[in-house]
Amino acid sequence: MRNGLFLIIFLSMISCIDKKAEIKNSEIVKTDVTKKPSEQENKQKITESKEIHSYTETFADSTKIAFPGKYKIEITQTEVDTLITVYFKLFQKADNKWKLIQNDALRKESEIPLLTEIKDFNNDGLNDFTIHYDAAARGANDIRKLFIFSKKENQFIEIKNSDNYPNLAYNEKLNCIDALSVYAGSTTTFLKLSKNTLTEFARVDIMDGQVESFVIKNNKETKIYSGAYTGSSDEMIRFSNYNPLEE
Fold first, then answer.
1. pLDDT tens, 229-241?
2. Is the separation of the CB atoms in 98 and 126 below 8 Å?
3. Residue, of 212 and 79, whose pLDDT is higher
4. 72 and 102 in contact (C-beta within 8 Å)?
5. What's the DSSP call for residue 113?
6. Fewer CB within 10 Å, N- or C-terminus of the chain?
7. With contact defined as beta carbons under 8 Å apart, do 149 and 87 qualify?
8. Which of 168, 144, 143, 147 is CA-nearest to residue 156?
C-alpha cells in the first residue's frame, strides 16, 4: 500500500515538472515571434514603400527662335521627387538637317511649369527666350531666367542674375530691359546688359502716392526726384522713363 502511494506521488511530481517545462518553452517561442524588427529592417521597409514622383514637360520651336527657320530649340523640364532640371538643346540647320550646337542644363528650385516666352529682349533682331523660374507676391511677380542669343558665339547665353528682377520686358523708349517689382507699392528698375549680367542704371519707386526716382552708377544711387505722383492712381505702375517720369 505504501509502495503504491509513493508511486502515485512520484508520477504526479514528474507530470508537474513536464508541464512547467512546456510552459517555459512556449513562452520562449512567443518572445521570439514578437521580437522588434531591427533598424536595418525598418529602413528597408521604408525604402520599399516610398513612391518616386516623376514629371516631364517639353517645349520646341523653330519658327521664332533666334533666326526663324534657321535654328530650333528643344527644352525639357524633368521633375523626379524634389529635383527639377531644365535641359536645353539648340540646333542649327545645315544641308537641310538639324545639327546640335548647344546642350545645357539648369537646376530649378520651384515646382512650376516652363511657360517659355520668346521675344527680342535686346533689340538686335534675334529672338531670345525666358523660362518661368519662380513666383512671388502671390503670383504678381513673375520671376524668369533670361537667355539672350549671341550671334558671335552662335548660342544662347544665360543671364545669371535675371531671376533677381521680376516681370522682365524690353523697354522700347529707352532701348533697355526693365523690370517691375510689386509689393505694397511697386518699383520699376531700368537695366542694361553687360555680358551675362543685368546692371541697374535707374529706378523709380512708388508707394502711397509718393514717388522717388534714382540714377545708379557704379552701384551708387543718386536721388533725382521725390514728391507726390499726379499720374495714375494705380500703385502697380510700370514706368517707361525715369527722367522725366513717364508711364
1. 887 766 678 999 9
2. no
3. 212
4. no
5. -
6. N
7. no
8. 147
Residue identified by cell 537641310 is 96
Which tens digit of pLDDT belongs to each residue from 194-203?
A: 989 999 999 9
Q: Looking at residue 137, what is its pLDDT?
A: 56
Cell triple for 42: 525598418
* All three cell numbers of 173: 523708349
Helix (H) or strand (E) holding 9: helix 2-33
Sheet arrangement for strand 197-207: 169-171, 176-182, 186-194, 197-207, 210-217, 220-228
> pTM of the prediction?
0.74
Q: Measure the CA–CA gap between 145 and 128, rounded to whole angstroms.
A: 11
CB 241 within 8 A of CB 233: no
Of 180, 204, 203, 201, the C-alpha closest to 191 is 201
Q: How far is C-alpha 1 from the chain's CA centre?
A: 97
Would you state the cell numbers that stand for residue 139, as one nine-digit string? 503670383
pLDDT recorded at residue 112: 83
Q: Which of 160, 156, 130 is nearest to 143 (CA)?
A: 130
Closest CA to 144 of 165, 127, 172: 165
Cβ neighbours for 85, distance < 8 A, ≥ 6 positions apart: 77, 78, 105, 106, 107, 108
Rg of the chain in Å (alpha carbons) = 36
The three state secondary structure string of 120-163 is CCCCCCCEEEEEEEEEEHHHCEEEEEEEEEECCCCEEEEECCHH
